[in-house]
Amino acid sequence: MFKIEAIIQPFKLDSVRESLKAIGIDGVTVSEVRGHGRQLGHKEVYRGREYDIDLLPKIKLEMVVPAARKDEVIKALVDSARTGKIGDGKIFVYEVIEAIRIRDDSRGESAI
Ligand SMILES: Nc1ncnc2c1ncn2[C@@H]1O[C@H](COP(=O)(O)OP(=O)(O)OP(=O)(O)O)[C@@H](O)[C@H]1O
Ligand SMILES: [Mg+2]
Description:
By secondary structure, this protein is α+β, with helices and mostly antiparallel strands. The protein has helices at about 15-20, 70-80; strands at about 1-10, 30-35, 45, 50, 55-65, 90-95. The chain is built from 2 helices and 6 strands. The strands form 2 sheets. It has a 4-stranded antiparallel sheet with strand order 2-5-1-6, with helices on one face. Strands 3-4 form a two-stranded antiparallel sheet. A hairpin with a 2-residue loop joins strand 3 (about 45) and strand 4.
């Protein structure tokens, strides 16, 4: 199993959720987060210098998926979240050791 964490532009959430639904990915955690990448958030020139104005609002999605579906999920995320402009976001992938459904104690891929 892999955990796929995607940080996306908030206005892309609906389109990303549609694309996950279309490929049958059901379990997802969504959080409102703030962050910046290499442009350090919005920048504004003031007296000849650039100042960091703020951390920008983003949406973080976390999905744990079967190993065999990792690449398909990443493709769906990239295709639905990309505008081609800076700030489109990032995807991080982690190996998952275990998943447990609390209700019935099912384990591994049958728990996700
Ligand atoms: N190395 C990182 N570690 C953790 N979070 C990150 C990292 N890079 C980006 N993020 C998160 O992803 C969000 C979007 O990053 P962003 O798309 O601006 O990355 P970038 O590397 O600056 O790429 P681009 O040049 O396309 O803007 C950030 O606001 C931050 O929340
Ligand atoms: Mg950036």
